[in-house]
Specification:
By secondary structure, the protein is α/β, with parallel strands linked by helices. It is built from twelve helices and six strands. Strands 1-2-3-4-5-6 form a six-stranded parallel sheet, with helices on one face. Helix 12 links the parallel strand 5 and strand 6. The radius of gyration is 20 Å and the shape is globular. The mean pLDDT is 96.
Amino acid sequence: MSFHEILKSYRWDDVGRDILGCDADDVRRSLAARNPAPHDLIPLLSPAAEPFLEEMAQRAHRLTEQRFGRVINLFAPLYVSNECINSCVYCGFNRANPLSRLTLTPRQAAVEGRHLHDAGFRHVLLVSGENPHVVTLEYLSWVVDLLRPLFSSISIEIYPLETEEYGELIDHGVDGLVLYQETYDEVRYSEFHPRGRKRDFHWRLETPERGGKAGFRRLGIGALLGLGDWRVEGFFLGLHARYLLKTFWKSHVTVSFPR
């Protein structure tokens, strides 16, 4: 079953009402659950959970130390292009915006990578606007080949690709995929993305699954906070992360909270 099929079994407004309808006893039951299910996340996102924030923070801290130790990984983004074919209403890269467009040559990207390496970074995230005619698979492969000797980890945050294309980038040394759904509310999604390939909600939603099938070591997801009710977004983001963890258990799943 794909995540899209799971998503269809939940209604955005119903989840919102359930969150607002929780009380302190619901929160306590969720915190006491030994094997939490998706519905156990709902009380933890509710206003009733506010008095329990310190308890939740301490539990999260203990789990983090248990799984990862006292380690912080730092990465730096490397923007290779602001060319974009989409018209996302909240984004400065919107194709209608009158701004100078620039795409680094692979050699220029390598120079920028060297600066980051000399500053101590060993993890880099390649970021671009969504224009597959400019930031081509061949271009990305060339950039990665030049950066590979400098970094122990290279991730990408670009436009969605097919599974086979992701596999090609993995062969060149990319090990992480980051892609934000922006909002899990399909109705509002179409309002925020009126034109361009990004308008296709399902194509974007299924991208982490294509990345998982390709074999990325890390899959990064997130919701753009501010587009919809952050509590409801949080539920669907957690649901998505749970699905990816269970389906692609060889991959690590990371969650971001961009605003």
